[in-house]
Amino acid sequence: MANPLDTDAGSELFAGYEADLRLVQADLNQKLDQIPEQAGEPRKASIRQAEHALEEANELLGQMRLEKQNIPSSARAKVNQRFRNFESDVDACKRKLKSFSDDRAALFGDRYTDNPASDVQLEQRQQLLSGTDRLGRSSDRLRESQRIANETEQIGAGTLADLAAQRTVIEHTRGTLLESEGYVDRSVKTLRTMARRMMTNRMVTIAIITVLAILIITVIVSKFL
Description:
mainly alpha; 5 helices
């Protein structure tokens, strides 16, 4: 069997697939252990259930194969080893299930004969049952895909609503900045006006002082003449 789960060596998503695969493997092994003790319809039902579990295991392996590419290189070696162990376990279950499916005497019970025509009919019936089972699983996957699509649509709608709210905030902030810029411009103009007035007042003051000084000097000079 594969090594114990090591969450430090893989992503959380990979670890989730790994845990799911362990459960599917346990269910698959339990069904495979029951098949040798059965015959006829019960055996065929168990084989179909095992086939369904095997298909689910292969789907999980496919998901794990994709996810392990996202794991850092430093941890990928341990993950690859666990993944190869899982593949080996699933392949062993596949071969075991095939051996049970090929045992027609046990599969069809007393109805099994060496008559080719009967064999063809039984094979066709088995294929029909297998096709029905696959159709049921396909319907389940379709419903699951529809559920995921609905959830994705809801998430997308929520994201669009958040973006709209953020756009409103940005526009409001932009308006506030423009208004603040207007206040700054008016403040700069006011400061410039005040500076010009202060310069004018200083020049007037200097002029007055100069005139007074001239008058004082004139008066003093006139007294000595």
